[in-house]
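Morning F.,

Quick status update on the modeling queue. The single chain you submitted on Monday has been processed. Sequence for confirmation:
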Amino acid sequence: MRDALVGAAFQLFLERGYEETTVDDIVALAGVGRRSFFRYFPSKEDVVFPDHERCLADMTAFLSEEAGADDPVQRVCDAARLVLRMYAENPTFSVQRYRLTRKVPGLRAYELSVVWRYERALAEYLRGHSTGPRADTLRADVVAAAVVAAHNNALRSWLRSDGKGNAAEAVDHALGYVQNAFGSSPGEPVDERPEDVVVVVSRRGAPMWRVVQEIESAFGRD
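Structure tokens below.
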């Protein structure tokens, strides 16, 4: 029933749009009652991200295992790969969700809250495996943020390509930067290739949304 609700929701989101689709529309198409919907999803936003609670639980369980914890940075990098695996299990759905999230500001905010929970889980693990001074709390937060940023950069690049290419290889490459910078053992060698540099000039006092719009326009992204 959970999968049927997700399938019905996305069918309607694609046909009508997210804002135009109601919970009543979803349950009607799925052939169930409202109570059944809310048994699985607290809100309409949650049906867009049906797998993140399970993935977060899997990540927490993975981090709680003692085996392979000799290098905490390597451990959190491996934990981040569980998120990629979740996305790669159903590329079509993942790409559809990415496109939908880009269009709906409320879903972007929801997604950020989900990302923050992943980052907190990684940081808590790193703090628990720190043997240094209290300053290591800051290091744990920095490393966790770096892992999430590297993972998401590669993941979103893969999603923008409609799920083409080797996502795992791209994420491994990105996480190699983190491993080389913070890990106790070197990660995958990072191929330093020259990159284009984009310079955006904006007038002083321009609103932040305008600056972001100019940056996105310079990179050719919506």
